[in-house]
Write a structure and sequence with these properties.
This protein is mainly α. The chain has one domain. The chain contains five helices and two strands. It has helices spanning about 5-10, 20-30, 45-55, 65-75, 105-115; strands at about 90-95, 100-105. Strand 1 (about 90-95) and strand 2 form a beta hairpin.
Length: about 120
């Protein structure tokens, strides 16, 4: 869904959704994950729902966790581009062809560069 479609659906202008909070933010990201960019007070739950709806919402997550990153990459493999490098410092899990694979930082960098 595009931002313009989301705004039409909720009958709002872009300026109306600035600084979303709480239940309003959660409802918005469930419909349009990238609305996370307007969420002033991000919670784990809000971020998780946003990336489950649209993996690319990961680029707006202020505090990434392995769980949030994994959900984003499950939704859209190309979201790995937005995974913070620190997530891979100790070797974390990614999903490839529905299989969980532990990946080192070096492998992550190589994979990320191959997607560009």
């Amino acid at each position: 869904m595009k931002l313009s479609e989301f705004l039409k659906q909720v009958n709002k202008k872009e300026s109306d959704i600035r600084d979303l909070k709480g239940d309003e933010a959660l409802a918005a990201v469930k419909q349009y994950g990238v609305a996370l960019r307007y969420v002033k007070e991000q919670t784990r739950e809000i971020c998780l729902e946003a990336v489950k709806e649209n993996g690319y919402a990961l680029r707006y997550v202020k505090e990434q966790t392995p769980e949030i990153c994994l959900a984003a990459v499950k939704e859209n493999g190309y979201a790995i581009e937005y995974v913070d490098k620190s997530i891979f410092e100790k070797g974390h899990i990614i999903i490839i062809d529905n299989k969980e694979i532990e990946i080192s930082e070096e492998s992550y960098v190589a994979l990320r560069n191959s997607l560009k």
